[in-house]
Amino acid sequence: MLQNLKMENRQETCVPRRGRAAVLLLLACAFLLGSFAQSQGQKKSQPKPAVLPSAIPAEVMLKIVRAEDERRFDNDLGILLFDKDARVRTRAALATGRIGDERGLTSLIALLQTDKEPEVRAMAAFAIGETESQAGAAALSEVVRKVTETDEVRARALEALGKIAAALPKADEAQSRAIGELILKTLDEEQARGPKSSRDLVLLGL
Length: 206
Fold this sequence. Notes:
The structure is a single chain. This protein is mainly alpha-helical. The chain has helices spanning 2-45, 58-69, 75-80, 86-99, 105-114, 118-131, 137-145, 151-167, 173-191, 199-205. Helix 6 (118-131) runs parallel beside helix 8 (151-167) and helix 7 runs antiparallel to helix 8 (151-167).
């Protein structure tokens, strides 16, 4: 009789434990399924990574680099300055500036004044400064005064004016002084804007 009671007690204690284990197992499964569903939902909601634009075609890049290395501004490079691809125009403008041939100056000024892409206009301004030709000073000055232009383009134009002024001979001291006054005036106006002032414009104009 005593043994039967012990057996019954053991059975009574075992059943609840098994029940709790089953409940815990079900809860664990539910948690894992919920976590998996949530992670799948997050993956679907995450934006796809931006597709990076392809590089400049190798044959085009080769033309630009060869012309740059040989310090040769020719018709091929002149055509690439107005290529439909903004990256090609930008790289061709840099090469033209590095070559320093004033025959490319007219095209660089055209890019500075009319190109739709600000990065191309900024590079054109930089390239004009690389030529150190005073023939580009008027176009650069116009851009510096153009308050609707982007800060980057104005900053590069200001930087280019500084290079041109530094390269002018003593005989052109008057023009050098005029450029210097424009640079100082622009910097003063920019610093007066306080927190809204362009850091690039101030640093490149110094």
